Every structure is written in C-alpha cells, then in structure tokens.
Amino acid sequence: MSTQVLIVGAGPTGLVLAIALARRGVVVRIIDRNSGPGQASRAMAVHARTLEFYRQLGFADAVINQGIQIDAIHLREHGEDIVALPLRDIGAGLSPYPFVLAYPQDDHEHLLVAQLRAEGVEVEWNTELESFTQDEWGVRAVLEHGDDRVTCSSAYLCGCDGARSRVREALGLDFAGGTYNHLYYVADVQTAGPPNQDLVGHLAAHTFALMLPVRSRGMQRLIGILPDGAPAHADFEAVRPVLEPLLGIRVEQVNWFSTYRVHHRVATRFRVDRCFIAGDAGHVHSPAGGQGMNTGIGDAINLAWKLAHVLQGRADAALLDTYEAERIVFARKLVTTTDRAFQLIVSQGPGGQLLRNWLLPHVLPALSGLSAARRTLFKTVSQVMIHYPDSPLSAGRAGDIIGGDRLPWVPDNFVPLQSLDWQLHVYGHTDPALAAAAQALRLPLHAWPWTEAHAHAGLLEDAAYLVRPDMHVALALPRQETDVLQALATRLKLRFGRDS
Q1: How many CB atoms are closer than 10 A to CB 220?
Q2: How far apart are CA 255 and CA 238, in angstroms?
C-alpha cells in the first residue's frame, strides 16, 4: 500500500504519532537521520496526561513499570535542605495516574520503537529528508539513505524533527523567540550511598541543579547550568566541585555527560497545506516543569485522529485546521509561563531572592499540606488542564465541564476510551431521543448510574458529553440536545462509527 503519512523524526513525538496512526489503520512511514534511539536524552518526566494517552493505546503499565514514581521534591540552597514537598498521590481523584513519573527518554524511545514494531512499522534509521514539494494531490519527498536517494509520495507529511527541523525550515516558518544565556549540562552518574528515590533541586541566582533517579540504570540523572567560566566543551570535572556540595552528593561514576543550549521559541504556524510540524519542531521552552516532551506527545495525539479521519473519509478536510488552532494556543501560553517561571527561579533580582529565601522555604511547606494547593499543583504540571474552549469542535457547558475540556476521570469511565474513537457519555438517565440519535449516527453510547463521584468530578446529572477520540469533550449537552450533536456531524461531515 502507498504511504499515507510520512513522519520525519523518530523521537517521542514522531513515534507516538506513528503508533496512533497505525492503530487506526493508516499506512505510515517514519524516518530518522540518526542510527537509532537517542543515547544522551534529557527529558525525564512523564506526566499524568501522557500516561492517560498511553493507557488509551495500551502500554501505560509498561511505562510505569520501567519508570520510578517520585515520592517527594527536596529543595536545597547553600548546600542545605530548605523544604521537602510530598508528591505521592498528589493527584488522587483527578487521574488514574496521580503521580509524577521519572522515565529517561532513551528508555522511553526504545519502548515506543517496540510498540511501533508491534504495529508492523519499522523506523527507517540513517534516513534523512533532503527536500519535498506539495500540491493539492499530496507530498513528494526526496529521502537520502547513505549514498542512495529515493522518492516517497504521501498524502501528508509531518515534521517531528526537533528544534532544528528541516521540515519547518523548508516551509519557511519563522521560529520566533530567543536563547537562554546559560549553557546547560546533563549527565547520568552513580552516586555514593543509598540510591536516591526523590527529585532533589538546588536553586540559586544564575544557577540551578536537579537530580532524579533513573531506575533502569541504577543511576541518577543530573541536569543543571554550567558554572560561570567553564568552557563550552567542559566535561564533568568542571561541574563536580560546584555540583556535589550543592546537591549533597558524591559522584563515583559518570556514565555520560553533555552540554546544550536551551531556547524558548514557537513557530508562526503548525501547518502549511499538507505539511504539519509537531513537538520541538513547533515549540521549545525552558525545562521548568518538564513540559516539553509531554507537550510534543500531546501534539501527536491531537493530530493523529484528525489525519486518520480525513484520510479514511470520516470527516471533511476542514477538521485538520483544528490541529493548529488548538495546539498553537497552548504552545504559546506554555512557552510564556515556563520562561517567566524559569527566569524568576534563577533571577539575581529581588523577585528571585524573595522566591528562594522566603516563599519556597516558608510558604510552600504550609501550602503542601492543603489538599486544594496540592490539587492545583498537580493540575498545573500534569497537563490534565489543557483544554480547547475556542475550538470549532467545542461547544456547550454541563456542570463544570465546557466543550474542549479533558473528560474528567472517575473510576470506569476511561475504559471505553480505548476504542480510540468518538463516543457519548451519560451520567444518569439516558433520554430515548438521544439513544435513537446515537444509533442513527452509529455513535457508541455509554451510560453510568449517577453517583457522588460524578458530582465531585464536575459532571452534571443526566447531561450528555460527546467525547472526542483524544479524550476531550467536544460537546457538553446539559439537556442531551440531539440537534447540537447532529449539527456538528453535518458541519464537519463527521462519520462517528467506523466501517466494519
């Protein structure tokens, strides 16, 4: 069969996009200029929303079993602990995954490659995109593999090829933003003493350092800012005298060490006709909150079902416009907020001093004991609050849920989402008219008897919720309005049910 989607770049974003497309029967081809999955990875945090997507795809448990749940954050300054924030079950009641998971990107990529192989798709390593053209019929790309040049025709092309994206550059998209002055390092090391199971962070003016456990290696991941005066080609020994007292550790073995620059940029567009960009090709930002990789995976999940629908004749091509409309708004907001947070953390000014010397050691411990504060922190970091209220796919309000919100989790209601397809949820009584309309539209309908857990999650009794394939609510229908449901189907020529 001919390629329907060519994916350039086999990092987490490209791999998840390929898996989500292949699961839906789309013929994909994925290439990467490297010889295999990354070795010196930096991304460590896998947040709850990503695990929810992985549950939908069937491999969340495998990721959790290979990662390590972070029990607490220990913040240090001047070589001393100043505050410890417990993280265990911080999101209890909000997600089936109420924790922060540490899982190194290199292990992560190997797992995703294996998941993709199980779908019958192999990554074409050592293969580079040379050029491409597009017209109303499709995309024609020239690929380089060693000394060979081959052409590949596809209906769509997706650039998941990182911050230096050749796809983005070829499309002529501006990548506005800047670069932080500091040079960063990342290392895998073995430390003396019992293995650390928590996230340890040091904060100070113009510097920070983090340590996270890496279970599969039996080692620790270190991330930080290279000390002033250290050369760009520095090795770990340039960091050791400063780092060890900051984090209160003694490094016995260095597995690998590298330095890198951090940027904060967002592309002007995420789509040009039949070509899309996702992940770091579209947005890069500070490491604050571990948001980068998780955001790219969210891009992939959002784009995959829309491409599949259009390719399989289940929706009008206008559906593809909603990818950029939904994801670029979040990317811009994320870059702004992570940039401000990071600049404040390392600031030498009064704001940074206030944060480090008073707010963190005195206010955070008090707040961490409040369930509302813990829930807010989890919602902010875990990406369960990402929503698309202004999307053409979003409408209505029922209870606290508006069109575009993530479907709130209550026990059992995420199970049907593994169909990877549209569905109606009713919490309470189902009107016969809605049941008839759903049957006519070939739209699966799932109903649960009303409980206090549903009310606590913000759902409305006897309301209906049209859930998208990516687990967001499209329509919140307080009175089970069938005309609104029919109008959306008509406008985008949606066919909710798959052909058997």
Answers
A1: 22
A2: 16
Across 307-339, b (16+ Cβ under 10 Å) vs e yields: bbbbbeebbeeebbebbbebbbebbeebbebbb
Rounded to the nearest 10 degrees, the angle between the axes of helix 12-23 and helix 292-311 is 30
pTM of the model: 0.93
- CA end-to-end span of the chain: 19
d(CA 56, CA 472): 13
Greatest CA separation for the chain: 73
Kindly list the domain boundaries of the chain, sorted by start residue. 5-68+103-176+265-340, 397-491
Q: Tens digit of pLDDT for each residue in 44-101?
A: 889 999 999 999 999 999 999 999 999 888 877 777 777 777 888 889 999 999 998 9
The lowest-confidence range among 144-158, 194-208, 280-294, 429-443 is 194-208
List the strands of the sheet with 148-154, edge to edge.
Answer: 127-135, 138-145, 148-154
What does the pLDDT read at residue 391?
97
β-strand partners of 203:
208
Could you say which of 3.90.870.10, 3.40.50.1110, 3.40.50.10860, 3.50.50.60 is the CATH number of the domain covering 5-68+103-176+265-340? 3.50.50.60
CB-based burial label for 233 (10 Å; 0-12, 13-18, 19+): exposed
Question: Average pLDDT, whole number, for the chain?
Answer: 89
Q: Tell me the one-letter amino acid at 109.
A: E
Half-sphere exposure for 500 (CA within 13 Å, toward CB): 1
Between strands 101-102 and 80-86, the pairing is unpaired
CA distance 153 to 142: 9
pLDDT digits (tens, 9 = 90+) for 297-325: 999 999 999 999 999 999 999 999 999 99
Q: State the virtual CA torsion across 394, 412, 66, 375 in degrees, nearest 10.
A: 60
Tokens of 324: 């950029």
